Every structure is written in C-alpha cells, then in structure tokens.
Amino acid sequence: MIASRQPNGSAISALRSLLPVLVVLALIALVPLLSPSNRFLSLAISAGINVIALYGLSVLFGQTGILSMGHAALVGVGAYTAAILARDLCTGFWLALPAAALASALFAMIVGIPSLRVGGHHFVIMTFAFGQLLAIVLTNGGDYTGAATGLDLVGPVTLFGADMSDLTRYYLMVVAFVAAAAVASWAIINSPYGRTLRAIRENERLAASLGINVGRHKIGAFVVSGIFAGISGVLLAHFLGHISPTQFASFPSIYLALMVMIGGARLIAGPLAGGILVAFLPEVLNLDPVQSRIVYGVCLIAVILLLPEGLIAGVGQVFRRLLASGQPKQEREELDTASTTPSEVRR
Amino acid sequence: MKTVLKLGVSAAFCLGSLAYPALAEDNIVKIGVVAAESGSFVSAGHTLPAGVGLAVKQINDAGGIKVGGKTYKLEMVKRDDRTDIATAIAATQELVRDVKVQAIFGSETHDFTLAMAKITQPAKIIHFAGNSTLAKILTPDSVKPGGEDHYLFQSEPQEFQRSGSTASGVLTLLEPLLGYKPKKSVMIVGNDATGQFLSSYYFKALKAEGQDVPDIIFYPPDTTDFSPFLTRAKSLNPDIIHFWYNGDSTLTALPQALELGAAKSYFLFGVDPGIWKEKQLSADVPVAMSCVPVCWGESSNPKAKAYFDAYFAAGAPHGVTSSVSLLYHDYVHFLAEAWEKAGSFDPDKTVEALLTLHHQGVVSDDLTFNPTHQVTHATEVCAAAPGGDISCSMQQPPAEAPKS
User: Which residues are listed as membrane-spanning (chain A) (predicted)?
Assistant: First the structure.
C-alpha cells in the first residue's frame, strides 16, 4: 500500500484520484451556461441521482467486494421515507435527508445481518430477493404506501429561501450532492476503515486472523451504502413528485450494479462514468430498451474480460501506455508498471 | 492529469451539444405526445401517437383550425418514453419547456402520467390521459381554477362506469350462450398499479349484477405460466373466469385455461375480436371480450369501421389494444373545437370551452367532460359463441357507482 509506505506523499497521491473527478464535476456544473435543453437537464438529474447511489454501491462492491442486487430497494426506502414524512408530518426536503439516510441505513442493517452470514453468491441472491420483497410490500401496503399506484410528493425544495424546483437549480444541487458523495466515498477509501474493507475484500480469512471483525465491517459497509442510497431516494422523490414500487424493484437494481461494474467500482471516477454512460448511451445512440440491454450486456462482458477494473481504469491504462510510448525506456517501464496497477488498486 | 482535464472538457461540451433551442413557427400549433413506443408497454403505447397523428392529419386535411380569425395547422411532436419514468419526465420537460407545446397527450402508464402532471399542470399545459386511475387525483378541489390539476383531463370513463358497463355486457351476452344465468365469477388480475385499481371496481360491478365472486386471484406482471392461478380458480367451480386487465397476458393465459377446463365460460378484458379472428382462436365454451372503448375486429358502433379503416391505412399495426387509440383520437378533435370556441389558445379559456362543449366523436355522438374533468361514454362488449359467431353491443355506463 503506497499510502502507508510513503506517508509524505500519501495525501498528494490520494488527492490525485479525487481531483479529476471534482474538475469534471465542476465542468458539468458549468453545462447550464451552454443553455442545454430541458430534456438534457432532466436526464442529467436522473443520472446524477443514480451516481449518488452508485458511490454507496462502490464502497460496498468496489472496496468490500460485496455485490448487492437490491440496491434500488434501499433507494426506494429513502424515497418512500421522504414521501411518507412529507405527507404525514409535512417534513421538507432537508429534514427528510437525514431521516431517509437513517431509514435506508437501518434497512440495510436489517437485511445485511442475515444476508451477510451467507456471503458470496448467496448474498447477491438474498439482496435480489429483498428488492422483490420490498416491491411486493409496497404494492400491497394499502393507503399507507399508496399500493401499486404509489405516493405523490408535494412541496417545493428550498435552499436559503430560493426555490430549487427550477430544473437548472435542481441540476446544480444534484451536481453538488454528487460531488459530496464522491468526496465522502474518497474519504472512506483513503481512511483506515477503507483499508480494512479492502483487506476483507482481498482475503477474508487473513483479515479475520489479523483481528478484524469481518462480519461487523461487512454490515457496516452495507449500512454506509444504504446512507448514500437513502439520500439518492430523497432527491429522486422530490424530483419526480411521484414514486411507485416498480421504480425500486429488482430490474432498476440490476441497472445500478451494471453501471458501477461498467464504470469501475474501485475507482473514484468509476460510478460517475458508469452512471453517465448508462443514462446517456440510449439517448445519444437513439437505442430502444431492447437494443440498450444488448449494448449493456456486450459492454459488461467486454469490461469483465478486457477491463476488469472498469472502463475508467481501462481508459487510464491506454493513456498511460500512449504517454509511455513517447518516453525514454526506463521511464516507459515505470509507466507501464503503473498502468498495470492503478494507484487505487494498489492501495 | 491534463488528459483527464481534456477528457472532462470534451465530455462536458459533447453533453452540452445535446442542447437545442425551441423552434417557434407561425400558424403551427404543436401537440405533444409521450408514449411507450418501445419497452414493455409498447403494445398500448404505439396506439397513442397513431390515434393522435390520425386526428392531426384529419384536421389539417380539412384546412386546420380557425382561432381568433387566424387559421392554424396542427403538428404532433411525439416522444418515446421507452417505458421508463426518467425518460418520460425528460420528454415532458422537453415538450413543455423547449418545444413549447400547447397540449400533451399521454402517457398510457398511470404513474408516469401522475409524474408528468407535476410538470404540465404548473406550466398550464392542457393534458389528456386515458387513465381511469386519474380519478384518484381529479377532485373538485384539484380541478378548480388555480387547483393543482386544473388543466388535466381524463379521456376514459370513470372506472365504476367502465366496469359497470363491462360487467353488465359480459353477463348479458354470455347468458344466452351458456343457456343459463351465470351466478359465480372468479377474477384473475395482473398485480400492478392498474390491475389493483381496476379490479376493485370490477369486483363491485359484478357484485352489483348479483354475481357471487369468491376470489380475486392476482398474478405477478409478466407471468407466463398461469396454471397455479387457473387451478385455484377451477377449484372454485366458476361459471365465468374474468381475465382482467392486460390483453397480452390474457392471450397467454386463455389457451392454458381452455386446456385445463378451468371454467364454463371466459371474459377477456381488452382483447379485440379482431385479434381473436386474426389469431384464429377458438374455444369450445363461450368467450366474451371487451374493447377500450370500441372494437375494431367486429363492432356495433356505426362509426368504428370508417375510423379503423383510416387508422390502419395510416400504418398502425393490428393489435390487442388498437382501440385504445380512440381514447386520444377523439380528444384532439375535441380540443381543436374547444380552441375554436374559445377563440384563443389561452389555457384557462380552453378549459372553460372543454367543460361546456358537447363533441361528436367516434366513440360517442355526445362526448362531454364532467366537472371533475372526466368523460363518460359506452364500452363495447362482444362474445364469441363456441361455433365462432361473434356478436357485439355498446353497453351504456351506470349512472351511479354501486354501493359497496
């Protein structure tokens, strides 16, 4: 682990992974200056909301090595918490955020305790089942959950007295939340806690032999990912103004897992890249849902076979090799070594 | 780092290039359509732009509309929602804010429509949707001037009316074919938003007709093996099994039901006799079908043939739910008449005109909206005898909802 071996360079080394993401997000925040269409802004908001959930999923999958196929259900818990609180207690957006994050975290813990006892593929199946179960519960929840019709969410989102319901403002707010999620995810990755999670990912038994409480940390990672999902759910509910169970069933969960795998779960730029790619690919290439699924499937197979660390790591490798081709032999060898093991992976 | 920065700048500009300004043309009135032209709801989705597009063509071919002394042509701007709520919302934002449509039709999916209304209503866009589930939000308070759904109109009858006319028609048509008065009915229903909502009304309508309904059996959407549900239904020894509401699922379930001999007769909601004939379906027991609202394969409605001839000639495919196009086609003409009457495209004056007009459509010679912006008209029910003969009749809706 480079950060441990070179304490003086650790902060700079760690920042090198975050800075490009923040720069890209800053550029994305400038997009409204180009007077984009409202269709673009709307799709970008949906993509951004997904990216926030993806940062949580990247902590779970990328750092801890646990794949959840029920992550949309945790987003749903957050969204329904916001809608029910707004309906029953007239709770606004900002109060709903911590409440929904807490509710999703609590649900993640409830699901995680029995599910993580089995681990591996069984955990994937259990989270998938949880997603289906939640959809069934919401569908049959009567007036309390709005049944299959779902719930309306009324009331404006305000920030320092400004109405954030305007599409451009909501877009900027979502970009800010994505930046906060990226920073939070980065902080977790570069903390001792993150290193513990990676130790569990690489070798559970070895980690346990070193005194790490593997079960507790795995549940902890699931809870952390639930916090991200809960916040994502609140943003989604307030953006759409209406939520229903089908939005949080298993299929949206598969899409989230797909996004994080294509982008790259271990890199801080991965969730951002995966979220944007999956949201805009059908739009740019004018693909219908069937064609989209074929393209995603092919992408996923290609990523798994050719770019196991995800698209961003693959692109990084290509650029490093291109740069190395113009360098003297010794430097080229150093760059080649670096390209085969990206800094985040080495950690 | 520089490369990453260049990538970021390129990405931002590429994404920004998707932006384009709204175009405004003189004498053109734009009507938006949001529908599932791809994805899982495509069967019903493609009927929506087909119905609206036909009406737009008919109006333009007749010279357009005269509003305030000026003649306007209509232009349909359709967007595929891909059966995805995020795309439906993005499409609505685009149509309302960028394209600046005067009215929107769609979507055929209930929860999409509710989310779309959050955009169309504050923007004062006249919004028609053929979802009877809109009754949940169309209340005297919500539709009054200044109310949150003042510009939203339900182009399908209230569900107690549709269910009432359907239940009455099914029982009336099946009785002579069965040779006795059916007494026991079992409902098999898709367990989604629409299925849950609709089945509660149809259950009450059957009870109001004196039926014993021992069970409503829900099946998960996308079910292909109906045998567990049919076995359960058969054990109740029903005179009629009512498949409610997804026509595509119903066509999957019926052969299994016939093989199992689950009931003495069947009712297939939303399956047109045209599909029955085209697929060369047959049954050794009577089978009733209903259309939303008028059938294309066989109809007792005198205007239906001319309409569906024009509809299919325009390139629309023959489908289980082709008749759903009439939940939109008539209302483009209705809206055009309202604009002419109002003498303006002002949304408030248009709403006033819509609420006072009696429009002659294909579905009915007297289409009107009630004070909560819901339309009333008959529903067509047909029945295929074991020999293959099909008879149809337009069933008028009950005046009042049955007491529960």
Answer: 12-34, 40-61, 68-86, 92-113, 120-138, 170-189, 219-241, 253-282, 294-319
